[in-house]
Amino acid sequence: MIRFQQPFLHIALGVASTLVISSCAAKLKPLTVDHITANPEMLELVGTEVPTTLTVQIPAEWMHRKAQVNFVPVLRYKGGESWGTTHAIQGEEVLDNHQIIPYKEGGVAEFSTRFTYDPRMQESDLFLTFRATVNGKQVELPSVKVGQGVLTTAALANLSGSSPVMATDAFQRIIQDRYNADIHFLIQQAQVRTSEIKKQEMADLKDVIENADEAPNQHVKVEIQAYASPDGGVALNEKLSAQREKNTSEALRRALARDIQISAHYTAEDWEGFRMFVEQSDIQDKDLILRVLSMYTDPEEREREIRNISVVFEQLAQDILPKLRRSRVSALVETIGKSDLEITEIAQQAPQKLTIEELLYAAAIAKKNMDKAQLYRRATELYPQDARAYNNVAALLMAEGKYNEAKPWLEKSRSVADNPEARLNTALLALEEGDISLAEELIGQSLQSGNNEVLALLYLKQGKYHQAVEAFGETKSNNAALAQLLTKQYDRAMETLNEVVLTNATTDYLKAIVAMRMHDAQSAINFLNEAFRRNPALRTQAAVDKEFTTLLNNEHFKQLIR
């Protein structure tokens, strides 16, 4: 028999006691759902991500002083799982830079994470998992289920709820063109010199007037505005400019082969013309002259002050004033274009006889999309260097959901000429495919286009719902209503949906969601019934849609989703 001495026995018992205490302390008790809160309670898609904030209540005397615990949120769904951002806590004796949780008092660990959206997340479970160590040794802790399902209403923002951007034509039924020619006079004279009436610019103007008066689809207005230069006194210039108006009218009537009505006026002193010519010149002391014009309104004071600048006045008398001793003859020609009926008939029978603007207009007023597409395609053949028709073919294909077919047409449009319409339509396709960065770049290049609907869809995809509402403005579309719904403007959203012109199954589906948000289950069921009639595939969507969770025990709803 081996006998132990008393001191050795005490040491052995002490070591054994320490091992028992360490072993117990090394164990971290499992946390439960009572300790963990997810906000929001039901996860919700925001833009293209699913965000959540987790709050973990750490009980007193739970956190081992030498423990480190990593919280790892995981969203699990059929066929996969997504891992969120890890948050770490540590005990008081751990030498690291994580949040410290005291052993005696416990504490609160709060952290946020977000998951990149996957459509399978609609039916999913949110777990909080743990990776823990005590003194460097792993400790197993069971994961805790803290949430179920994702509200995916924001995913209804898509290209089908937007209008592709059409490039417009520049067709005008009445085109106005103004043609001008000046007849100049010698100083203090009103006689129209033969050389002036027969010079080339007057001969050209005369042809324009006579041809327009003769043409069946044109109308011409002839105006004469006579002037005197602002030197020599107001009374003299009044008489002089009036005589110039009279003499110019008579000379023009003699020169024209047709009897055309002439509207004539005169201005005693052409100070506006004087200002214009001075601004356009490089005359000495130009700024001083312009300052005099702004300081004095009385014609005689102006003339006196300008004459006081003696050196400059000599240059004015030589370079500026002779240009003001004139009569301006103007011809306003209105060309009346083809009627809608004429354009439509020519487009069907001989489109090559139409200008590009007329052909694009013919396509725009066509009643059937099939006819529009045919005319736009014909325009690309007849006018291959015009980018608009290519874009509009793509826009019609996009409206039909034929996105892959639309792409090469947009590429062709942009290769012919970089244009905002094709850029914005390319941005729409990028948004549909989830390429937010490309869409941002293209929309940023096209902000001056005045089309805010594409920008609003970008905001929807980014989860910036209030900005989306503002960008949509008074637009009546599914996407505009969705933005209002997501900002809890339910009455406005329903009004918008009721005013959508080209409705589809999504319109009715959105109405059902709005009705549920407004606690009107019966209306929601009626809207769903119409949505399923138009698109039976939505039954599967509604069966798992968290917007309709409270209807799962409703017999009418059960029948609808079977």
Description:
With about 550 residues, the chain is α+β, with helices and mostly antiparallel strands. Helices cover about 45% and strands about 20% of the residues. The chain has 24 helices and 16 strands. The strands form 4 sheets. Strands 4, 5, 6, 7, 9, 10 and 11 form a 7-stranded mixed β-sheet that branches. A 4-stranded mixed β-sheet has the order 13-16-14-15. Helix 4 (about 235-255) links the parallel strand 14 (about 220-225) and strand 15 (about 260-265). It is elongated. The N and C termini lie far apart (about 85 Å).
Q: Specify the overall morphology.
A: elongated
Please give the alpha-carbon distance between the first and last residues. Answer: 83 Å
Structure class: alpha+beta
Give the averaged pLDDT, no decimals: 90
Uncertain segments are 1-25
Enumerate how many helices there are, as a single number.
Answer: 24
Strand content: 15-25%
Main features:
disordered N terminus, alpha+beta, 47% helix, 562 residues, seven-stranded mixed sheet
Brief digest:
With 562 residues, the protein is an alpha+beta fold. It is built from 24 helices and 16 strands.
